Amino acid sequence: MIVAEWKPLPELLAGLKGYKNLLLVGCATCVAECAAGGEREVNTLAPTLHMALKNQGQDINIITRTLERACEPEFVEELAEIAPQVDAIMSLSCGIGMQLIAERFLDKPLLPGVNTTSLAIREAPGLWTARCRACGDCVLGETFGLCPVARCAKSLMNGPCGGTRKNGRCEVDENTDCIWYLIVERAKARGELESLNQVRQPKTWSNSAHGGPKRIVREDLRS
Amino acid sequence: MSKPPSPGFSPEIVVLYCRQTLDAEAKPPEGTRQGDGFSARLVLLPCSSKIEAYQMLAILDKGADGVQLVACPEKACRFLVGNNRAERRVAHARGLLSQAGMAEARLELNRAAELTPEDLMNLAGRHAGRIKDLGPNPMKGGTN
Questions:
Q1: pLDDT tens figures, A156-207
Q2: Do the chains contact at A51 and B53, CB–CB below 8 Å?
Q3: Quick one: A2-118 is in which CATH superfamily?
């Protein structure tokens, strides 16, 4: 899922200065799963903002909505009726949803309520860890299903580095596994350790974020 | 956040209590009751974990002077972890209250068992006593 987290409250409050009517929008998909921008978080942030602003002498009316998917135009259209009644829109959806909302309601300032941080899984209740960086050239087939791009602090394609701790954790963060340690362990368990000695072609980075905005075209699906 | 006591201030306390904290013989009290210098709205919950942080925040945002969540003692939850979840949610909500410039003491959690309706009112009264030092909720008469 796409993972996000709330921006610090002082930053949110600073952005709301002067507004009287706010539409606070959440998304019931990824950001709901990571407890940053679903209906529950919208309903938590609304009274928090209202109380904080009132304590600062600003009375604001906050209308809340949670879209099924903020990254699909059809769902964003649900806001068309309510948008004219507000001065600004704050979105707790990921950066994709935020941009779609901003594009649809060009006359309304769009305030980001969250920072979109990673593509992650819920590893345990209350713990999300990155699994993918959308690098555009997946190598999971060569690394036993463990991603060195997203899960190695240095994104090493040939690891482990010299910094692996004795307990198999990363030198950068003792709470994080060294992914190359796990890759080697998984290769050993499969009896395929030798496969890691094969010389592989350099990874193609041209399809990653470095090549400018990506555009995927499927002629068979175009209208 | 702490203000001088307001003369004539009668705190309105919302008491959210788990059914299992009551004495087995007690009839679960509900609705608003008048105490000595405060009023308490008693709300019955099947488990203290059935209340979410946003609901506790909304109650305070709408002007209640204090919210008290009454949960079962440690390791005595009929749903095993409900009271611990409630405790974490109260801590989360108190953190948000603090960031919003509200006295986090307006929201508190109590662990108790075998309560009578009078015991519940006594708990609310003690919370009201602490709220009196804080003064009325500044959100009273808000727009949301």
A1: 999 999 999 999 999 999 999 999 999 999 999 999 999 999 988 888 888 8
A2: no
A3: Response regulator (3.40.50.2300)
Q: Do A9 and B143 touch (CB under 8 A)?
A: no
Write out the two tokens for A97: 């949803």
pTM listed for this prediction: 0.93
- The encoded tokens of residue A96 equal 């994709």
Q: What is the extent of the structural domain holding B84?
A: 27-134
> C-alpha angle with apex A80: A217 to A110, nearest 5 degrees?
75
**ipTM for the complex shown:** 0.92
Q: Do B100 and A44 touch (CB under 8 A)?
A: no
**CA of B34 vs chain A CAs: smallest distance (Å):** 27
Alpha helices in chain A (DSSP H): 9-15, 30-33, 39-55, 73-76, 95-104, 148-151, 179-190
pLDDT digits (tens, 9 = 90+) for A12-62: 999 999 999 999 999 999 999 999 999 999 999 999 999 999 999 999 999
